[in-house]
Each structure stands twice: as structure tokens, then as C-alpha cells.
Design a protein that fits this description.
Layout (H helix, E strand, L loop, with lengths): L1 H7 L6 H14 L17 H14 L3 E5 L3 H18 L2 E5 L5 H13 L2 E6 L13 E6 L7 H9 L7
Length: 163
């Protein structure tokens, strides 16, 4: 799946992007949690580096989330990532505070069942009613906007029992 991801990218990865992806993949093989900060200018490809890691997690059946500080940023990420997920055969969804009623319930069921492999959203992703089947990777955009306690709550959602 990762090779297919590379083939659908609208650009060739730079050496720095590929090196960062390789380092992340090596970290994903370890038995200890990875904490990595990826820095770069706007438009430098950080989202595609994160996407590569999320695709790698999907290859092994695990879920990933991309946590954004605002609804607008979450929707922008979703608009960029969802078409690639569709080409890869991955279910990607967006969850924000805007989601209510039946639409929200359907998204929660898909997350809990593991059907949704990549979830993009805001603080809504770590609400009490959100459960994941196998959360393996959390990507936080603009991490300075999330406190230590919030990051801990999100990380702890990766330890839910099987449904």
C-alpha cells in the first residue's frame, strides 16, 4: 500500500521528506512509543510525511488520527487526504464538534469497529464517546495548541478493548 501511496503523490518526495519517513517507519518498528516533532515551512510536505506514516499503520490494520486545533484546519486536511485514501481503498473520515445526531453516531461506529483507518478532526476525536478498535498513531498538527493532559487522553484511547 505504501508503494501505491508514493505512486499517487502529485510530486516526488524530497530527500529530507524520504529520510524523515524512513526514520518514522524505523520508530514504528520499536516497542516503545514514538514522540517526534516534524518541522517545516508551510507547503514543505509535512502533511504528506504524516500521511505516509498513517498509510503504513493502515497496512498493518491499525488506525491513525490527525488532530487539528480548528474545524477549518481539520476540513482542509480532510479535503487533501480523503481523495488519496479513496484511491488506496482506505476509509477516511472527519470528526468535529459540528457532527451531531445520526451522522456522528455512524462515524463513532465506524471508528469503534476499525472500519475507519484514518480519522481527521478536532478535540472531538478524544471526546468520552469516541472509541477506537486499534489506534496506533496520533498525528498532532500545531501541537502547541494541545495541552499535556489532552495529549494523554488521546494516547490512552489507543488501549481500548476489542469490541
Amino acid at each position: 500500500m505504501i508503494n501505491k501511496f508514493y505512486s499517487i503523490l502529485p510530486f516526488k518526495l524530497t530527500g529530507a521528506q524520504q529520510r524523515t519517513i524512513d526514520e518514522i517507519f524505523a520508530d514504528l518498528q520499536k516497542s516503545i512509543p514514538m514522540m517526534r516533532l516534524v518541522q517545516g515551512d508551510v507547503g514543505s510536505g509535512k502533511t504528506m510525511v504524516a500521511m505516509a506514516a498513517m498509510v503504513k499503520m493502515a497496512e498493518v490494520g491499525a488506525q491513525s488520527v490527525l488532530l487539528a486545533p480548528t474545524d477549518t484546519l481539520a476540513q482542509q486536511h480532510f479535503a487533501k487526504i480523503q481523495p488519496m485514501c479513496e484511491k488506496l481503498g482506505l476509509v477516511c473520515d472527519v470528526l468535529t464538534g459540528r457532527d451531531k445526531g445520526v451522522a456522528r453516531r455512524e462515524k463513532l461506529i465506524s471508528l469503534k469497529s476499525g472500519r475507519t483507518k484514518i480519522a481527521i478532526g478536532t478535540h472531538a476525536l478524544f471526546s468520552d464517546d469516541v472509541e477506537y478498535k486499534d489506534l496506533g498513531l496520533i498525528v498532532i498538527d500545531e501541537q502547541h495548541r494541545f495541552g499535556v493532559a489532552q495529549r494523554t487522553v488521546m494516547r490512552d484511547k489507543g488501549h481500548n478493548p476489542e469490541i
